[in-house]
Amino acid sequence: METDIERAGRLILASKYVVGLTGAGVSVESGIRPFRGPGGLWTEYGEPPMDGYQRFLANPKADWEQRLKPGGYRRELFETLEVAEPNPAHNALAELEELGILRYLITQNMDNLHRAAGSKKVAEIHGNFSKLRCIQCSSRYERGEISLETLPPHCPRCGGMIKADTVMFGEPIPLDVLRICEEETSQSDCMLLVGTSAFVYPAAGFPQEVKRRGGALIEVDPYETGLTPVCNISLRGKAGEMLPRLLDCIKVKLHRGEAEPPI
Ligand code: APR
What confidence tens digit (pLDDT) does each residue in 208-226 have? Predict the structure, then answer.
């Protein structure tokens, strides 16, 4: 009896352009809580207001002061982000890229763990907590590059206002990242969904777009998600356990010459 892992491995190797879409679940085994469902931050603290960005624009100094002295969910989240390390799920995705199997990785996570694991082709649709961004010219800076003596800080390039690179509720997704996500999604005939409830748009729309064009969806999640009904294969388990097994299965098939890596 072929296992779901083997079916998923065969489907991935039969696909021409595999793109990954990850959410908070891929980083749970790195000690960062998800937002929804069991153990979710929003489950405990409640969803933050949907107009976070408008509140930032109304009083950027106050928002920056809160960000530098965080309370509530922010304090817990920021503390875990500072110390988190990649887990076997992040490492497996980086190796799938290196093998030429995973063409691009779209992540909703701002935790920088895919990059830390060695993934290169990464689009961080909700930004990166270790970076700052100018809201006028979209220039991005490492945190240490910008003085926070005067709040809000301003862009050394264009003078625009600088905020954290992470995308707030109510904030438009930066166009440079959005374009990459849409471009990669438009080429994809198989999307590997890992640890996302597929609740938040525009990210949740990408797998639907792949499906609409006749592509396949594989999800990795211990629980059912909003996309389970349209997934070709659901690997029901933790990402840190399932993805290394999927990687091993694919490597065995490649070794046996059952398939060629796409590139
Ligand atoms: N491995 C894989 N998946 C897991 C694991 C695990 N170890 N633990 C939990 N999950 C799953 C949950 O079952 C859930 O389906 O991860 C998913 C996490 O869903 P959310 O918490 O809703 O996270 P995400 O989909 O990334 O949320 C999208 O919402 O709040 C905003 O900006 C925030 O980027 C975030 C966006």
Answer: 999 999 999 999 999 999 9
